[in-house]
Description:
Keywords: Membrane, Metal-binding, Nucleus, Transmembrane, Transmembrane helix. Residues 343-372 form the Zn(2)-C6 fungal-type domain. Residues 181-211, 403-425 are annotated as: Disordered. Belongs to the Ca(2+):cation antiporter (CaCA) (TC 2.A.19) family. The structure is a single chain. By secondary structure, the chain is mainly alpha-helical. Among the domains are: 74-195 and 212-221 and 260-353, NCX, central ion-binding region (A middle domain of Talin 1, Up-down Bundle); 709-993, no CATH class. Helices cover 72% and strands 0% of the residues. The chain contains 41 helices and no strands. Helix 21 runs parallel beside helix 25 (618-633), helix 29 runs antiparallel to helix 31 and helix 31 packs antiparallel against helix 32. The model is unreliable at 1-15, 181-221, 348-356, 365-369, 371-383, 404-439 and 938-993 (pLDDT under 50).
Amino acid sequence: xxxxxxxxxxxxxxxxxxxxxxxxxxxxxxxxxxxxxxxxxxxxxxxxxxxxxxxxxxxxxxxxxxxxxxxxxxxxxxxxxxxxxxxxxxxxxxxxxxxxxxxxxxxxxxxxxxxxxxxxxxxxxxxxxxxxxxxxxxxxxxxxxxxxxxxxxxxxxxxxxxxxxxxxxxxxxxxxxxxxxxxxxxxxxxxxxxxxxxxxxxxxxxxxxxxxxxxxxxxxxxxxxxxxxxxxxxxxxxxxxxxxxxxxxxxxxxxxxxxxxxxxxxxxxxxxxxxxxxxxxxxxxxxxxxxxxxxxxxxxxxxxxxxxxxxxxxxxxxxxxxxxxxxxxxxxxxxxxxxxxxxxxxxxxxxxxxxxxxxxxxxxxxxxxxxxxxxxxxxxxxxxxxxxxxxxxxxxxxxxxxxxxxxxxxxxxxxxxxxxxxxxxxxxxxxxxxxxxxxxxxxxxxxxxxxxxxxxxxxxxxxxxxxxxxxxxxxxxxxxxxxxxxxxxxxxxxxxxxxxxxxxxxxxxxxxxxxxxxxxxxxxxxxxxxxxxxxxxxxxxxxxxxxxxxxxxxxxxxxxxxxxxxxxxxxxxxxxxxxxxxxxxxxxxxxxxxxxxxxxxxxxxxxxxxxxxxxxxxxxxxxxxxxxxxxxxxxxxxxxxxxxxxxxxxxxxxxxxxxxxxxxxxxxxxxxxxxxxxxxxxxxxxxxxxxxxxxxxxxxxxxxxxxxxxxxxxxxxxxxxxxxxxxxxxxxxxxxxxxxxxxxxxxxxxxxxxxxxxxxxxxxxxxxxxxxxxxxxxxxxxxxxxxxxxxxxxxxxxxxxxxxxxxxxxxxxxxxxxxxxxxxxxxxxxxxxxxxxxxxxxxxxxxxxxxxxxxxxxxxxxxxxxxxxxxxxxxxxxxxxxxxxxxxxxxxxxxxxxxxxxxxxxxxxxxxxxxxxxxxxxxxxxxxxxxxxxxxxxxxxxxxxxxxxxxxxxxxxxxxxxxxxxxxxxxxxxxxxxxxxxxxxxxxxxxxx
Length: 993
């Protein structure tokens, strides 16, 4: 018996040792896994926000999902449920909720600066009240755990969490609440800093020193999207692994020690997993950021009590074998939540009852040293921006009036003769008599001496630092001298660098009339209510750019640059024009037509200056892009090409073709620059194909990213169409390069046929993507659909230019059947688009002249030529002749819009008459029919079938015919055709007039 007793004791001792080792091992695993859990949650939250912002997800959603989101708690809960220990999950949820209030929130209040006054804003009070309501609803449900109750209530809690996110996001977007601040961790990740920098809007005219530091810092930290996606996946895997290991270790510890899962979850697991919140609370309280305290506490508890607890209830349906939380824990949870809400509300009540004495009643009650608080000059109270603008404009007008009335010999003489009216006009005009000259930073690429010199200097600095050599020369002094010599190479080019020595261009600036301040303020107010369609266009979709231009012209006393003034009047011209078409209430309050004329004059004066055409800067690029749009609308392709050449030159000199350039600017500014560049790119490729000339911007030098797609519903579809427009322009550039360039003319028939097949496939794929665009959620979806129809016209026009180069069979007589089908569809799309401009539901929104501006002038009528050739080649094909007549009828309706439209109508109507005359002549005489067929056969034999297209047509009708047709400015051909119609019409009898 003694031996047996000794052996049993030994076995017991060994078992205790084994049990102790297991406990120590699991505790070590538990503690080490906490670090992995926090690391994974940190990376997952941070890089989820970065990826979301890069992909265009709104900041409100990012803030709600990252501020107070207990993702690590959710992982622990799911892992506990997966291992069949729901009691551990429930204990962790309740304990974490209590720890957030009594631990994190209380620590934040305790570590606040001594003598500081705590003030909770309205958003904090609303958040805390929402938490109290949720806690009051959840506490009885947790205690009465029954299958049906938990299953139904769990689903309700998950649904309430979704409703909570949507309602809070809506309230933040409306401005009723402030967005939650911070996140649930104390990360200081560099990319998070970059994220905040990029997401913070700033005025264009902000401090250059601050902007420079911000741009350099942002560019230094910015990583690729793939880098952040990789870290996001890594964080997710780390969180999943840590949650599983942590819950498994916790289960082992509870089993070994013999305590309940609920107790372990409330006391140990909850405190351990909420340590980051406590660190953030201490830092926030010490820095006085009480908003972060409330946001983290409320956000975390809402996440726990709605989403996490809802998942537990749905999964377990009230079946908790290891026990549930008791009344004391639930009472502590509800009481602490009530105390949080009362503290926020009591702060508001104390502020209302404060007697404003010294010391004040609040400080006397709290036994604090009262400090008289004076308003800070550098942090003014938040006010309405429009009200500030109105006050500032009034102040500037008063100052100008005072200056004008002061004794001035020159002005006194002029005022005595012109009277009060001209005096007021002179005050307005004098605002723009002196423009500031922009000092743009010019881009120099890797092959430039400047860039290579800077690289060589960096290499020499690294070599000196690494070698530690001793020289009789002062290497540091020489290096500094070299750096000083290289600085002028990096400095922005001055305005005189774009002028000859004897030039006096900069001394003569155009005079521009200021618009009434009341009109500008009214327009800015209207922008807040209803954004114009023009401010959702390809060139500009950010109203803040227009607001900034107006502020720089009216709000500040600093001199205005010519590019800024020209850009402001250009945008104002289109905005006011849209208000007139839409019959906006502003049209009844102001004489908008007169102000539109003023904007048009000012814009034209600015565009036609040497400074706008020769000096590269963003404002000049933007104003030139507006000028190109206006020139196209007026049917002036040669003027458009002139402005396009200057704009493309500016883009190359500023480095807009390279993506690296945009990383040097604040995110909003970079997006504005990017949109301006791609708008110019689209026009460049389109005009290149229309004019038959090489484009100014070559694809070999362009690596800029596509513009960001706006998350706003009014602009999202327009931005998607913008990107499709860029892809279409790239195809147009390839069409010219592979089929119509000088290199293409010397390519073999096999190479040309391969290019035709590849380009036609790309066009068809692009057209499928165009049909997938959804505009049903847009406010102005009818206008958007009308715009898509104009792209149909451009699609078939470009497809015809591709297929006209296709190799044909003997039966096809020089033009393939696919080309004829594309041309026929092109003319039919013209007719459909024109009828849509006549029948659109919004009266006055578009007109027949707009069809000429937005459709006809921006596409080629080469389908008309193809159908004409096919009609005169096929016997008795009056169907194509009727199609030509319908197109001529459309051109006749718009012939009065511009000289280009009138000329195009004359050319096409004569073609249609010629086709009808030839076909009717064939029908009347078999001999005439045979003779015409022989003539056409001789024509196709003279010119290569594989090369049939525009070149043979030029040889038959004149060398300049097609070029003038595509330009819509067929001056020489019109006179030739006019003489032909005068001299030769009598030879063709029976031709309808």
